[in-house]
Structures are given as C-alpha cells and as structure tokens.
Amino acid sequence: MEQTFSVTTAQRLDTFLATLLNLSRVKVAKLIVDGLVSVNGKKITKNGWLVQPEDRVHVNWSEELFEKVPVEVQPYDFPLDILYEDEQIMVVNKPNGLISHPTSFNESESLLGAALFHCNHQPVFLVHRLDRDTSGVIMLAKNQSSLLHLQKQLQQRVMKRYYLALVHFPLDSLSGTISAPLERVGNNKVMWKVGNSSNKAKNAFTKFTVLNQNEKAALIKCELLTGRTHQIRVHLQFIKHPVYNDPLYGLKSEQATEYGQYLHAQQISFIHPTLNKEMGFEAQLDKTFSDKLDNLNLKIANSLYALFQ
Fold first, then answer.
1. How far apart are CA 237 and CA 216, in angstroms?
2. Cα 162 to Cα 17: distance, rounded to the nearest angstrom
3. Where would I find the S4 RNA-binding domain in this sequence?
4. Which residues neighbour 187 within 8 Å (Cβ) at sequence distance 6 or greater?
5. How distant is the alpha carbon of residue 268 from its chain centre?
6. Per-residue confidence (pLDDT) for residue 303, from 0 to 100
7. 130, CA 20 to 30 Å: which among 161, 162, 166, 199?
8. Annotated catalytic, 291?
9. Are 151 and 166 contained in the same domain?
10. 90: CB partners within 8 A, 6+ apart
11. What is the rounded CA–CA span in Å between residue 110 and residue 103?
12. Quick one: DSSP state of residue 11?
C-alpha cells in the first residue's frame, strides 16, 4: 500500500508517521530503516529526521511487514569488547546500535547472539539489558545458578549500576533523587511515561549528580535504584533535561542522528556468584560520545571520578 502525506507543522518523521498510520514507533522505525519512506522524493533512513511544512512524505508499507517471528537467539559473529570473563560470568562493553536480545521483528544480530558465538554455542544468559543505542557495561551469566545469584543482587540493590548521561540545559540542583512511577503510554508497546499511583504505574527511582555543565548542556552521573524500561531517559525528560539525541524522549526540535541517545553505562559493581568477592568494572566512552563532550566543552574532572567509586 502506497500513501503520500503533506506536512503542515515541523516535527520528527517517526512521530509524523506514527500518528497518521496509527502505528507504534517500533513499526514506524522499521519502515524508515528498511528504506520504505521518502521525503520530497529522497529516501530517508533516520527516524529523527525533521520534516518541514509543505514537505511530501511517501511511504510504501503493509501489515505483513510486521508479522512477528518466534524469538530465537542465533549465534552472531561479532567482535566483543570483553572487560572480564571466567567460567561463571562475562562483563562486556556493549557498543551503541547493537540490541541486547533478538526481537520478534527479525532482528537477530544481538549482543546475546555474539556472546553465544564467543562461547562456542554454550548456554549464556543476559543478567540485565541495555537499550539498543545505550552503550556500556552489560553482564551475562554462563549458567542458571550464576544468573539467579546476580539477578537477586539486582532486586536487592546489591548490584550497583552507574550511567553517564549528556542532557540538555544546566540543572539547578547539583544532585538529587528522581522519584516518579513509570507506565506505558496508552497501548504503545515502546514508549513509557511518568504515571500516577495507579496499579499500572511501577515505582522508579534514579539518583543523579552533575559532573560538569555549562549554559547549553550538562554531563551527569545517574545511579539506577530500580531497573524499569527506559527509566533514566523518561526520568530526565520528566525533569525537563532530556538526553541529547534521544529519538523517543528528546527535544521535539532536535533532529536525532543514527547514533541515538547519549547515554552510557559507565560502571557496575557486584558480588561474584562463586568467588563471593566484590568486583567492579568500567567501560570507556566511544569516540562519538567523547567527541560530543569535546564539542560542548564538557569533560569529567579527574577529581569527580571518585563519585563512581
């Protein structure tokens, strides 16, 4: 089915199509990434492309494109940045753009698949997940016993996870805790929002500390006290400091690039499931994130690295 629409107000391409086609952002993203959308005759593959008044948007799609397939982890020959590995666990620095787990929309190239390939098809399990465009430390277990041990640490907040987030605008408070329950946005299977105390909303808590800021932006450290989907991104949007380049929760006026949100899982600490000793690991920023900080004149002062210890 081919359709053409005229734009009346400036907005993101994915938002524009999601509204007109009554599709989720995930489905719209698939249309765009698969090259089925053009603007003024030019094929566009960036979800965050900003369309302007009088632009003509053409899309060629059908519901059959979104038929789900059974999710099965396929070995994926992909080089992993392994921070630590033994017979029980793996700690990996996940790159931006790689999904943690395969999806039901024929997306099989995942970090879990890469770990499966690395382990010669021996069982391996995700202890937690990171969003596709969130880079940084992620943990995997090599057996059910270690998996349960580590997931229990998550639930009891023994495991500590620290993130770096680049956000818009300077913050008035240099530290604090965001306490705001999260729930889905209507029937949308992708987006979340701050809800109320209804049964649908789940309690969520995020601690933050400003590491550096100027008149345009701030680099902040976030600690997850709970682990809800998109928690940091939604919480920072809620306090009106959205993450830079966030395709779902960023500024509407911002034309997001393929890199996605500037959010990085910087550090993790936990008790090893069999050695019974505390361990901690840090993942370095990639060049794109680091260059962005340079462009905005934002760096972490050496004295502030202690905040991650």
1. 16
2. 35
3. 11-87
4. none
5. 16
6. 47
7. 199
8. no
9. no
10. 82, 84, 115, 118, 124, 139, 140, 141, 142
11. 9
12. E
Given a cut of 80, is residue 210 above it in pLDDT?
A: yes
CA neighbours closer than 13 Å in the CB half-sphere of residue 228: 27
pTM: 0.77
What CATH number is attached to the domain comprising 39?
3.10.290.10
Q: Given the residues 14, 131, 133, 246, select the one marked as catalytic.
A: 131
Question: What is the pLDDT averaged over residues 204-220?
Answer: 96
For 40, the token pair is: 């003024």
Count the alpha carbons within 13 Å of 263 in the hemisphere toward its beta carbon: 30
Measure the CA–CA gap between 189 and 285, rounded to whole angstroms: 30
Q: At a CB cut-off of 8 Å and minimum separation 6, what does 196 contact?
A: 181
3-7, 63-67, 136-140: lowest mean pLDDT where?
63-67
Strands 263-271, 135-141: pairing kind? parallel
Closest CA to 307 of 237, 202, 239, 223: 223
| pLDDT tens string 85-138 | 999 999 999 999 999 988 755 567 899 999 999 999 998 999 999 998 999 999
| Among 232, 223, 219, CA closest to 293 | 219
User: Quick one: pLDDT at residue 231?
Assistant: 96
Q: How many residues does the chain have?
A: 309
Q: How high is the mean pLDDT of the chain?
A: 88
21 pLDDT higher than 90: no
Give the count of domains, the chain.
3
**172 inside domain:** yes
**DSSP secondary structure code for residue 65 in this structure:** G
In whole angstroms, give the CA distance from residue 11 to residue 35.
19
- The per-residue b/e assignment along 21-59, b for 16 or more CB within 10 angstroms, e otherwise, is bebbbbbbbbbbeeebbebeeeebebbbbbbeeebebbb
Weakest mean pLDDT among 19-23, 32-36, 243-247: 19-23
Q: Tell me phi and psi for residue 38, to 5 degrees.
A: -130, 150
